[in-house]
Amino acid sequence: MFENLFLKGGLSLERLRSFMQMAHAGSIAKAAPQDTTRQSLISRQIRELEEFFGVELTQRRGKTLSLSTAGERLAGLIREQLQDLEDFRNEQDGAAKAFTISAGGSTLEWLVTRHLAELAAVLGNAILRTEMHRSRPLAEAVSDGRVDFAILREDAIPQTSAKNSRRLVNLTFHLCVPRGLLKRGTSAAMLREVQRWRTLPFAAGRDGGQMDAAVREGMAKAGVDFKPRFECGSMLQVRQLVEQGICAGVLPNIGMTGLDEKSVLSIPFAPLADYGRALALHWNPRQMRRRGVDDRVIEKMARLLRQI
Fold it and tell me: What is the pLDDT of residue 207?
Protein backbone atom coordinates (compact mmCIF):
# COMPACT_ATOMS: atom_id res chain seq x y z
CA MET A 1 0.00 0.00 0.00
CA PHE A 2 1.32 3.45 -1.01
CA GLU A 3 4.50 1.84 -2.25
CA ASN A 4 5.24 4.77 -4.57
CA LEU A 5 5.64 7.06 -1.56
CA PHE A 6 8.46 4.92 -0.21
CA LEU A 7 10.36 4.05 -3.39
CA LYS A 8 12.87 6.82 -2.74
CA GLY A 9 14.11 8.72 0.28
CA GLY A 10 13.37 12.33 1.18
CA LEU A 11 9.98 12.08 2.86
CA SER A 12 9.78 12.16 6.67
CA LEU A 13 7.74 13.74 9.45
CA GLU A 14 10.73 15.90 10.38
CA ARG A 15 11.02 17.28 6.85
CA LEU A 16 7.28 17.95 6.71
CA ARG A 17 7.48 19.67 10.10
CA SER A 18 10.31 21.90 8.90
CA PHE A 19 8.37 22.84 5.80
CA MET A 20 5.32 23.72 7.90
CA GLN A 21 7.43 25.87 10.22
CA MET A 22 8.71 27.85 7.25
CA ALA A 23 5.24 28.12 5.69
CA HIS A 24 3.71 29.34 8.97
CA ALA A 25 6.50 31.81 9.77
CA GLY A 26 6.75 33.18 6.24
CA SER A 27 10.47 32.63 5.82
CA ILE A 28 13.29 30.29 6.84
CA ALA A 29 14.89 33.04 8.94
CA LYS A 30 11.67 33.65 10.87
CA ALA A 31 11.13 29.92 11.35
CA ALA A 32 14.46 29.67 13.21
CA PRO A 33 15.46 33.18 14.33
CA GLN A 34 19.12 33.59 15.28
CA ASP A 35 19.79 29.90 14.68
CA THR A 36 21.77 29.61 11.47
CA THR A 37 22.34 25.87 11.94
CA ARG A 38 18.59 25.24 12.11
CA GLN A 39 18.02 27.59 9.16
CA SER A 40 20.48 25.61 7.05
CA LEU A 41 18.78 22.36 8.05
CA ILE A 42 15.33 23.68 7.12
CA SER A 43 16.63 24.91 3.77
CA ARG A 44 18.18 21.52 3.02
CA GLN A 45 15.07 19.61 4.09
CA ILE A 46 12.85 21.75 1.84
CA ARG A 47 15.17 21.01 -1.10
CA GLU A 48 14.90 17.30 -0.29
CA LEU A 49 11.09 17.54 -0.29
CA GLU A 50 11.24 19.33 -3.64
CA GLU A 51 13.38 16.53 -5.03
CA PHE A 52 11.01 13.92 -3.63
CA PHE A 53 7.86 15.51 -5.06
CA GLY A 54 9.56 16.77 -8.22
CA VAL A 55 8.22 20.30 -7.92
CA GLU A 56 9.33 23.68 -6.57
CA LEU A 57 7.63 24.35 -3.24
CA THR A 58 8.91 27.89 -2.82
CA GLN A 59 9.59 30.83 -5.08
CA ARG A 60 11.81 33.84 -4.58
CA ARG A 61 10.60 37.33 -5.32
CA GLY A 62 13.50 39.66 -4.78
CA LYS A 63 14.63 39.00 -1.23
CA THR A 64 11.32 37.43 -0.22
CA LEU A 65 10.71 33.68 -0.19
CA SER A 66 7.09 32.60 -0.61
CA LEU A 67 5.22 29.38 -1.24
CA SER A 68 4.53 28.30 -4.79
CA THR A 69 1.06 27.08 -5.71
CA ALA A 70 2.25 23.52 -5.12
CA GLY A 71 3.83 24.58 -1.82
CA GLU A 72 0.57 26.10 -0.61
CA ARG A 73 -1.28 22.90 -1.43
CA LEU A 74 1.32 20.76 0.32
CA ALA A 75 1.21 23.02 3.39
CA GLY A 76 -2.56 22.50 3.59
CA LEU A 77 -2.20 18.73 3.27
CA ILE A 78 0.49 18.58 5.95
CA ARG A 79 -1.51 20.77 8.31
CA GLU A 80 -4.56 18.53 8.00
CA GLN A 81 -2.66 15.29 8.42
CA LEU A 82 -0.66 16.47 11.42
CA GLN A 83 -3.85 17.83 13.01
CA ASP A 84 -5.55 14.47 12.46
CA LEU A 85 -2.62 12.62 14.00
CA GLU A 86 -2.58 14.95 17.01
CA ASP A 87 -6.35 14.49 17.47
CA PHE A 88 -5.93 10.72 17.25
CA ARG A 89 -3.18 10.72 19.87
CA ASN A 90 -5.25 12.93 22.17
CA GLU A 91 -8.23 10.61 21.79
CA GLN A 92 -6.13 7.59 22.77
CA ASP A 93 -4.71 9.47 25.75
CA GLY A 94 -8.14 10.72 26.77
CA ALA A 95 -6.86 14.27 26.35
CA ALA A 96 -8.89 17.23 25.15
CA LYS A 97 -8.71 18.44 21.58
CA ALA A 98 -7.45 21.96 20.93
CA PHE A 99 -9.39 24.39 18.75
CA THR A 100 -8.40 27.83 17.49
CA ILE A 101 -10.89 30.71 17.49
CA SER A 102 -9.75 33.84 15.69
CA ALA A 103 -11.11 37.38 15.37
CA GLY A 104 -10.04 40.99 15.58
CA GLY A 105 -8.60 42.11 18.90
CA SER A 106 -11.64 44.01 20.15
CA THR A 107 -14.03 41.30 18.95
CA LEU A 108 -12.05 38.69 20.87
CA GLU A 109 -12.21 40.83 23.98
CA TRP A 110 -15.83 41.94 23.77
CA LEU A 111 -17.54 38.95 22.16
CA VAL A 112 -15.40 35.83 22.66
CA THR A 113 -13.44 35.99 25.91
CA ARG A 114 -16.50 36.28 28.14
CA HIS A 115 -17.83 33.00 26.65
CA LEU A 116 -14.61 30.98 26.46
CA ALA A 117 -15.47 28.61 29.30
CA GLU A 118 -18.92 27.90 27.83
CA LEU A 119 -17.53 27.46 24.33
CA ALA A 120 -14.93 25.02 25.66
CA ALA A 121 -17.69 22.98 27.29
CA VAL A 122 -19.74 22.89 24.09
CA LEU A 123 -16.66 21.60 22.25
CA GLY A 124 -16.21 18.70 24.65
CA ASN A 125 -14.16 20.52 27.30
CA ALA A 126 -11.65 21.44 24.61
CA ILE A 127 -8.53 23.54 24.94
CA LEU A 128 -9.29 26.85 23.22
CA ARG A 129 -6.66 29.01 21.58
CA THR A 130 -7.41 32.55 20.45
CA GLU A 131 -5.64 34.36 17.64
CA MET A 132 -6.00 37.93 16.43
CA HIS A 133 -6.42 38.66 12.71
CA ARG A 134 -8.24 41.12 10.49
CA SER A 135 -11.34 40.03 8.60
CA ARG A 136 -9.89 39.47 5.11
CA PRO A 137 -6.97 37.26 6.23
CA LEU A 138 -9.39 35.45 8.56
CA ALA A 139 -11.50 34.17 5.67
CA GLU A 140 -8.33 32.74 4.08
CA ALA A 141 -7.25 31.18 7.38
CA VAL A 142 -10.59 29.37 7.67
CA SER A 143 -10.39 28.21 4.06
CA ASP A 144 -6.95 26.63 4.44
CA GLY A 145 -7.55 25.22 7.94
CA ARG A 146 -5.16 27.43 9.91
CA VAL A 147 -7.98 28.32 12.29
CA ASP A 148 -11.05 26.28 13.21
CA PHE A 149 -13.50 29.12 13.79
CA ALA A 150 -13.45 32.79 12.86
CA ILE A 151 -15.61 35.70 13.88
CA LEU A 152 -15.44 38.34 11.20
CA ARG A 153 -17.44 40.81 9.18
CA GLU A 154 -20.09 39.00 7.20
CA ASP A 155 -19.17 40.91 4.04
CA ALA A 156 -15.60 39.53 4.24
CA ILE A 157 -16.81 35.93 3.81
CA PRO A 158 -16.61 34.76 0.17
CA GLN A 159 -20.02 34.27 -1.39
CA THR A 160 -19.21 30.63 -2.07
CA SER A 161 -18.69 30.07 1.68
CA ALA A 162 -21.60 32.13 3.00
CA LYS A 163 -23.60 29.00 3.83
CA ASN A 164 -20.83 28.04 6.27
CA SER A 165 -21.52 30.96 8.58
CA ARG A 166 -24.03 32.12 11.16
CA ARG A 167 -24.81 35.78 11.78
CA LEU A 168 -24.10 36.76 15.37
CA VAL A 169 -24.79 40.46 15.77
CA ASN A 170 -25.58 43.55 13.73
CA LEU A 171 -23.12 46.27 14.64
CA THR A 172 -24.44 49.69 15.60
CA PHE A 173 -22.29 52.65 16.56
CA HIS A 174 -22.68 55.05 19.46
CA LEU A 175 -21.16 58.32 20.54
CA CYS A 176 -20.03 57.82 24.14
CA VAL A 177 -19.13 60.90 26.19
CA PRO A 178 -18.03 61.03 29.83
CA ARG A 179 -20.51 63.19 31.67
CA GLY A 180 -17.63 65.04 33.27
CA LEU A 181 -16.84 66.55 29.85
CA LEU A 182 -20.38 67.89 29.43
CA LYS A 183 -22.17 70.81 31.00
CA ARG A 184 -24.29 69.78 33.93
CA GLY A 185 -27.77 68.76 32.81
CA THR A 186 -26.80 67.84 29.24
CA SER A 187 -29.34 65.35 27.95
CA ALA A 188 -29.16 62.77 25.18
CA ALA A 189 -31.33 65.02 23.01
CA MET A 190 -28.94 67.93 23.56
CA LEU A 191 -25.92 65.73 22.76
CA ARG A 192 -27.41 65.02 19.33
CA GLU A 193 -26.66 68.63 18.41
CA VAL A 194 -23.51 68.33 16.33
CA GLN A 195 -22.10 71.67 17.48
CA ARG A 196 -21.58 70.14 20.93
CA TRP A 197 -19.24 67.53 19.41
CA ARG A 198 -16.85 70.16 18.07
CA THR A 199 -15.54 71.10 21.50
CA LEU A 200 -15.06 67.57 22.81
CA PRO A 201 -11.68 65.84 23.10
CA PHE A 202 -11.84 62.53 21.21
CA ALA A 203 -10.04 59.21 21.07
CA ALA A 204 -10.11 57.25 17.82
CA GLY A 205 -8.43 54.33 16.16
CA ARG A 206 -5.38 54.69 13.97
CA ASP A 207 -5.17 51.27 12.37
CA GLY A 208 -6.64 52.36 9.05
CA GLY A 209 -9.31 49.66 9.29
CA GLN A 210 -12.85 50.03 8.00
CA MET A 211 -14.32 51.11 11.30
CA ASP A 212 -11.66 53.75 11.89
CA ALA A 213 -12.18 55.12 8.39
CA ALA A 214 -15.96 55.06 8.79
CA VAL A 215 -15.85 57.07 12.04
CA ARG A 216 -13.60 59.71 10.48
CA GLU A 217 -15.78 59.91 7.36
CA GLY A 218 -18.87 60.14 9.57
CA MET A 219 -17.43 63.06 11.49
CA ALA A 220 -16.51 64.82 8.25
CA LYS A 221 -20.02 64.18 6.95
CA ALA A 222 -21.43 65.81 10.10
CA GLY A 223 -19.23 68.86 9.53
CA VAL A 224 -16.85 68.18 12.42
CA ASP A 225 -13.17 69.04 11.96
CA PHE A 226 -12.16 65.75 13.57
CA LYS A 227 -8.71 65.91 15.17
CA PRO A 228 -8.56 63.22 17.89
CA ARG A 229 -6.45 64.02 20.92
CA PHE A 230 -5.58 60.31 21.18
CA GLU A 231 -5.10 57.96 18.25
CA CYS A 232 -5.15 54.42 19.61
CA GLY A 233 -3.91 51.10 18.33
CA SER A 234 -7.22 49.40 19.21
CA MET A 235 -10.81 50.17 20.10
CA LEU A 236 -10.14 48.62 23.50
CA GLN A 237 -7.94 51.61 24.29
CA VAL A 238 -10.62 54.01 23.07
CA ARG A 239 -13.10 52.45 25.49
CA GLN A 240 -10.59 52.67 28.35
CA LEU A 241 -10.11 56.39 27.76
CA VAL A 242 -13.88 56.90 27.69
CA GLU A 243 -14.29 54.94 30.94
CA GLN A 244 -11.54 56.99 32.58
CA GLY A 245 -13.46 60.16 31.73
CA ILE A 246 -10.61 61.52 29.60
CA CYS A 247 -12.29 61.81 26.23
CA ALA A 248 -15.25 60.89 24.05
CA GLY A 249 -15.27 58.10 21.48
CA VAL A 250 -17.43 56.24 18.99
CA LEU A 251 -17.90 52.62 20.07
CA PRO A 252 -19.75 49.65 18.56
CA ASN A 253 -22.61 48.16 20.54
CA ILE A 254 -20.53 45.06 21.40
CA GLY A 255 -18.03 47.33 23.14
CA MET A 256 -20.53 49.09 25.38
CA THR A 257 -21.42 46.26 27.75
CA GLY A 258 -20.72 47.36 31.30
CA LEU A 259 -20.34 51.08 30.57
CA ASP A 260 -21.68 52.99 33.57
CA GLU A 261 -24.64 55.08 32.37
CA LYS A 262 -24.18 57.37 35.35
CA SER A 263 -20.67 58.24 34.17
CA VAL A 264 -21.03 58.02 30.38
CA LEU A 265 -23.78 59.48 28.20
CA SER A 266 -24.32 57.50 25.00
CA ILE A 267 -26.38 58.19 21.89
CA PRO A 268 -26.58 56.50 18.48
CA PHE A 269 -23.91 57.96 16.18
CA ALA A 270 -26.17 59.35 13.48
CA PRO A 271 -23.55 59.58 10.68
CA LEU A 272 -23.16 55.77 10.81
CA ALA A 273 -26.85 54.94 11.15
CA ASP A 274 -26.80 53.29 7.71
CA TYR A 275 -23.31 51.82 7.96
CA GLY A 276 -24.75 48.35 8.42
CA ARG A 277 -22.17 45.73 9.38
CA ALA A 278 -22.76 42.28 10.83
CA LEU A 279 -20.37 39.89 12.54
CA ALA A 280 -20.63 36.18 11.76
CA LEU A 281 -19.24 32.88 12.96
CA HIS A 282 -17.45 31.18 10.05
CA TRP A 283 -16.00 27.69 9.64
CA ASN A 284 -14.74 25.22 7.05
CA PRO A 285 -17.14 22.23 6.81
CA ARG A 286 -14.36 19.88 5.74
CA GLN A 287 -12.36 20.89 8.81
CA MET A 288 -15.39 20.30 11.02
CA ARG A 289 -15.99 16.82 9.60
CA ARG A 290 -12.36 15.88 10.13
CA ARG A 291 -12.37 17.17 13.70
CA GLY A 292 -15.72 15.67 14.68
CA VAL A 293 -17.72 18.89 15.13
CA ASP A 294 -21.32 18.60 13.96
CA ASP A 295 -23.94 21.23 13.12
CA ARG A 296 -25.55 21.04 16.56
CA VAL A 297 -22.30 22.08 18.23
CA ILE A 298 -21.87 25.00 15.83
CA GLU A 299 -25.43 26.18 16.50
CA LYS A 300 -24.79 26.10 20.26
CA MET A 301 -21.63 28.14 19.76
CA ALA A 302 -23.52 30.70 17.69
CA ARG A 303 -26.24 31.04 20.36
CA LEU A 304 -23.62 31.71 23.01
CA LEU A 305 -21.81 34.31 20.94
CA ARG A 306 -25.04 36.20 20.24
CA GLN A 307 -25.27 37.05 23.94
CA ILE A 308 -23.65 40.49 24.04
Answer: 67
